[in-house]
Automatic annotation (TrEMBL):
The keyword Oxidoreductase does not apply. It comes from Drosophila ananassae (Fruit fly). Residues 200-229 form the C2H2-type domain. The keyword Thylakoid does not apply. It comes from the Eukaryota. Residues 248-271 are annotated as: Disordered. GO terms for biological process: positive regulation of gene expression. PROSITE patterns: ZINC_FINGER_C2H2_1, ZINC_FINGER_C2H2_2. Signal peptide: none annotated. This is C2H2-type domain-containing protein.
Length: 447
């Protein structure tokens, strides 16, 4: 039965998330653009839809890969943006470039992210909804005895529990899919595997073969009778992935998220007004009573700078660059010699994100452990800055690691151009310049 879950709170309007009446998620959902009538079919057109939002409407959705049920997320914001402008919900940025990279002064862009309480709560509720649906489906699959399906490799028809089918695949054909108690949406997973086999595609390396006997022999000899754990599209079939607040592993100690994003001292809950001096104050400002100077570096440079590819800490930027040359065969100055300051900022933030997500900077291959990722990048000589198309995005203007010492010393390297064709206005400057606009925006969603 369809029901509504209301996200209620004192500081923001309710966020409604409709739960699907189906146990199995629907495929090929038609989603309209947030601002125009262009229609995209999800999940196939997801990337095209996000590209359209950026190219046509200058809108970037932060951490979109970590959003549960993206279709519901976009449908919610489409309803909101029918009656409101982007400025009322999004962070505004001014860049000196068009979406296609051409120079143009003071072009306005919008960032929709969970620093907005309404967006933060929406993402949280969607995670809860996705988890609830997955648990409901999981319970059904463990107890349902009406299942019937022909084996992927032989003509045997297995009836009863899905666990019996998975046991048959392993016992008779040595195909390891996963333990039944850890899998969900098993029917969809098996259909996907069957489609690959029918198309003569290896389940692990996804190479295509000329006939079925050749494919079976390849999978037997190479040990490829299993699914590739590094393929992100398989994440939805493993229950453990549904209880994570973010897909990116945390490699550093953080403050509680709500404490970081919603400082109660800056908001009057009765009037909804905002103290801008407190709301936009830096953590080390004079307004912080418990502030101290223990992290101050007298020589003007951070006390330690973290390597881009491993946990090594360098005492100075020059020492760190020598380490990256010796350990990772990357000459940072040479690799970024043609880039201006802001482009190097994006490179650093992109590499930080890749390391936190345990993804290779060059080939984007996913790993389960940091040691495996480091070994792969070293052996394959993938310790580079990646393709420009991957890091030259507005989202990488924002630091991925809090108090990143490397960002503080980038201006010491070569290649800076004072007339750089990309410029970003900081949030602090925007707060002073557009205080009236920010006040109106904050009141509209009642911080």
């Amino acid at each position: 039965m369809e029901h509504e879950v209301a996200v209620a709170g004192e500081d923001f309007p309710a966020v409604e998330v409709k739960a699907s009446p189906k146990l199995k998620p629907s495929a090929n959902t038609a989603i309209k653009c947030l601002k125009c009538d262009k229609v995209y079919i999800f999940p196939a057109d997801k990337d095209d839809c996000l590209a359209h939002l950026y190219m046509e409407h200058r809108l970037v959705i932060a951490d979109v890969e970590d959003i549960a049920l993206v279709e519901d997320y976009l449908q919610y914001w489409r309803k909101e943006f029918q009656d409101h402008e982007f400025e009322q919900y999004c962070t505004t940025m001014f860049l000196d470039q068009l979406p296609d990279g051409k120079y143009s002064k003071n072009e306005k862009y919008y960032l929709l992210c969970d620093i907005l309480p309404q967006d933060y709560e929406l993402r949280r509720r969607l995670r809860e909804k996705r988890l609830s649906e997955a648990l409901e489906r999981h319970q059904f699959e463990l107890t349902d005895r009406t299942f019937s399906k022909e084996c992927l490799f032989c003509r045997t028809v297995i009836k009863g529990l899905r666990a019996d089918y998975l046991d048959h695949l392993f016992d008779k054909h040595f195909l390891l899919v996963g333990k039944p108690e850890k899998l969900v949406y098993v029917d969809e997973l098996l259909d996907h595997l069957e489609e690959n086999l029918n198309n003569l595609v290896c389940l692990y390396c996804e190479k295509i073969f000329k006939d079925r006997p050749t494919l079976k022999e390849h999978m037997r000899k190479k040990g490829h009778k299993r699914i590739n754990p590094n393929r992100r599209e398989y994440d939805k079939y493993f229950l453990v992935n549904y209880n994570r607040s973010s897909a990116a592993p945390t490699l550093r100690k953080q403050k509680p998220r709500q404490q970081q994003r919603h400082p109660s001292s800056s908001v009057d809950l009765e009037t909804g007004s905002v103290d801008f001096d407190k709301h936009f104050a830096r953590p080390d400002s004079d307004g912080e009573q418990d502030s101290d100077w223990s992290d101050w570096a007298a020589d003007g440079e951070p006390s330690s700078i973290k390597c881009l590819f491993c946990p090594h800490l360098g005492e100075t930027f020059s020492v760190l660059k020598e380490h990256m040359i010796d350990a990772h065969r990357l000459d940072f100055d040479q690799a970024t010699s043609s880039l201006n300051f802001y482009q190097r900022v994006k490179v650093v933030n992109y590499l930080r994100r890749q390391l936190c997500m345990l993804r290779c900077a060059s080939c984007d291959l996913q790993f389960d452990e940091l040691d495996l990722l480091t070994e792969h990048m070293t052996q394959e000589l993938h310790c580079g800055i990646g393709d420009r198309a991957c890091w030259d995005k507005p989202e990488f203007f924002f630091p991925y690691i809090e108090n990143d010492g490397l960002l503080c010393v980038l201006d010491d390297s070569t290649g800076d151009d004072p007339e750089a064709d990309v410029r970003i206005i900081s949030e602090d400057s925007m707060a002073q310049i557009n205080k009236e606009a920010e006040q109106l925006s904050l009141e509209n969603f009642k911080l």
